[in-house]
Specification:
33% helix, four-stranded antiparallel β-sheet, eight-stranded mixed β-sheet, 11 helices, 16 strands, alpha/beta, single chain, Aminopeptidase, Alpha-Beta Plaits
Length: 399
C-alpha cells in the first residue's frame, strides 16, 4: 500500500498520542503494578474494535493484548511496547512530571505505550486494508529482571500463531528522528553471578588461627576478570562487573563470611552458555587454595537480543521509502539488555531504536536518569513506522 496514507494518519493522531504519553508519564507505575495504565489501554482497544482484548497477566491486573483482524486469519504479526516505569525520583521540571513519588518513566516506556496506541488508531482506520491479523502487546515488567514480563506473557500464550514480532525503543544516544538498526545481535545478555565465601573468623592480631574469607573474596574479584581478558576470544564482546561486596563488622575482626554479587554481559549466546562453568571453576580453585568453602550461584536474566536479518532488511526498505536513507543509522551493539529477547527466542523478531536527542529541548539525558526526557516530536514517526511494518509484516515469509 502507499505509505502516504499511514503518514497522514500518524499526523492526524499525533496530538492524541502526545496526550497519552503525558498522561502515562504523570502516572508512572512500577513493574507488575501497571493497573491504571493497563485499564486505559484496554478501554482504548475496546473502543477501537479490537478483538479478544485481554488485560492482566502473571496473576496481576497489568498488561494488555488485543488483535485486529486482517484479510488473513493467520499468520499474525505482533507489535510490542513495554509499559512499566522505574523506581527513580524525577528531577526534570515538566508540566507532566510524575505525580507518583519515587517512580518515574526514565526509560521511555510511556512513549512506547503511547506510540502503540497511536498504531492502534492507524490500524483501526485501515482495517479493510490489513493483509493479516495484527496483535498489539502492551507488556508489563520489562524492567523486572528475573521476573520478566515477556517470559510470563509468552507462557500465557501471547505468541500463539505469531509469525514475527516488532519492537521499538526510543533512544537518547541517537539524534531526534533517526532510526537506529542492527542485524543480528543488537543488545547484550544480562546475568547475575553470586559467590558465598565461608571461612573461619578470628582476631586480626592472630590471622594464622583464622581462615580469612576477605582474602579469598579479593582474589576471586581479581581472578574472574581474567575470564574476559584470557578465556574469551579478543574479538568477542563481554563485560564482567562487581556490584556488591559484603564482609566484616569491625577493623580488628577477621569475619567468617563474605559475599560477592556481580553482573556479566555478552553479545554471543554461545559465550554466555559457557560463563557459569568458568566462574565456578575459578571460584572453587581459589576457595580450595585459601582454605575456604565457596558456593556459586548463576542467575540467567535476559538473553542476547538478536534481530532477524530479513526483518531488518524490511525495516530499512520501509524506513527509506517513508523518511529517506539519511534517517537510517546502523548502530553499534548496546551492552544494555532487553527482555524483547525472549520473544525472539520463540519467533523471528526485530527491535529498532528511534532517536530522541535534541540538546535544545533537553532530551539528551541518558536512560534511567532522573533528568530523562522524551522528545514528543518523534512520536508520530514511531507510529507511522510501526504501522507500516505491521502492513508489511507477512512479507517475511514470502522471501
Amino acid at each position: 500500500m502507499k505509505f502516504e496514507e499511514i503518514l497522514e494518519l500518524a499526523e492526524r493522531f499525533e496530538e492524541k498520542v502526545i496526550n497519552f504519553r503525558h498522561d502515562f508519564h504523570a502516572h508512572p507505575e512500577l513493574s507488575w503494578e501497571e493497573e491504571r495504565t493497563s485499564k486505559i489501554i484496554e478501554q482504548v482497544l475496546i473502543e477501537l474494535g479490537f478483538d479478544g482484548v485481554r488485560r492482566g497477566f502473571g496473576g496481576t491486573e497489568s498488561g494488555v493484548v488485543g488483535d485486529i483482524a486482517g484479510k488473513k486469519e493467520f499468520p499474525i504479526v505482533a507489535l510490542r511496547a513495554d509499559i512499566d516505569a522505574l523506581p527513580i525520583e524525577e528531577e526534570a521540571d515538566v508540566p507532566w512530571k510524575s505525580t507518583n513519588k519515587g517512580v518515574m518513566h526514565a526509560c521511555g516506556h510511556d512513549a512506547h505505550a503511547a506510540i502503540l496506541l497511536g498504531v492502534a488508531h492507524v490500524l483501526a482506520s485501515l482495517r479493510d486494508k490489513l493483509p493479516c491479523k495484527v496483535r498489539l502487546i502492551f507488556q508489563p515488567a520489562e524492567e523486572s529482571g528475573v521476573r520478566s514480563g515477556a517470559q510470563q506473557l509468552i507462557k500465557e500464550g501471547v505468541l500463539d500463531d505469531v509469525e514475527a514480532i516488532w519492537g521499538l525503543h526510543v533512544w537518547s544516544p541517537l539524534p531526534a528522528g533517526t532510526i537506529g538498526y542492527r542485524s543480528g545481535p543488537i543488545m547484550a545478555s544480562s546475568d547475575i553471578w553470586e559467590v558465598e565465601v565461608k571461612g573461619k573468623g578470628g582476631h586480626s592480631s592472630r590471622p594464622h588461627e583464622a581462615k580469612d574469607p576477605t582474602i579469598a573474596a579479593a582474589n576471586i574479584i581479581m581472578s574472574v576478570q581474567t575470564i574476559i581478558s584470557r578465556e574469551l576470544d579478543p574479538l568477542e564482546t563481554a563485560v564482567l562487573s562487581i556490584g556488591r561486596l559484603e564482609s566484616g563488622s569491625a577493623p580488628n575482626i577477621i569475619p567468617d563470611k563474605a559475599f560477592i554479587q556481580g553482573s556479566i554481559r555478552t553479545t554471543n549466546s554461545k559465550v554466555r552458555d559457557g560463563l557459569p562453568e568458568k566462574i565456578e571453576r575459578i571460584v572453587k580453585g581459589i576457595g580450595s587454595a585459601l582454605r575456604c568453602e565457596v558456593k556459586t550461584n548463576y542467575i540467567h536474566v535476559y538473553p542476547v537480543t538478536v534481530n532477524d536479518p530479513i526483518m531488518i532488511e524490511t525495516l530499512k526498505e520501509v524506513a527509506s521509502v517513508m523518511f529517506g536513507d539519511k534517517s537510517l543509522v546502523e548502530v553499534p551493539i548496546a551492552m544494555g539488555s532487553e527482555d524483547f529477547s525472549f520473544y525472539q527466542q520463540k519467533v523471528p523478531g526485530a527491535i529498532f531504536f528511534l532517536g530522541i536527542t535534541d540538546s535544545q529541548k533537553g532530551t539528551d539525558a541518558e536512560h534511567h536518569n532522573p533528568m530523562f526526557k522524551t522528545n514528543d516530536e518523534v512520536l508520530k514517526k514511531g507510529v507511522a513506522l510501526l504501522a507500516a511494518l505491521a502492513m508489511e509484516g507477512t512479507k517475511r515469509s514470502d522471501r
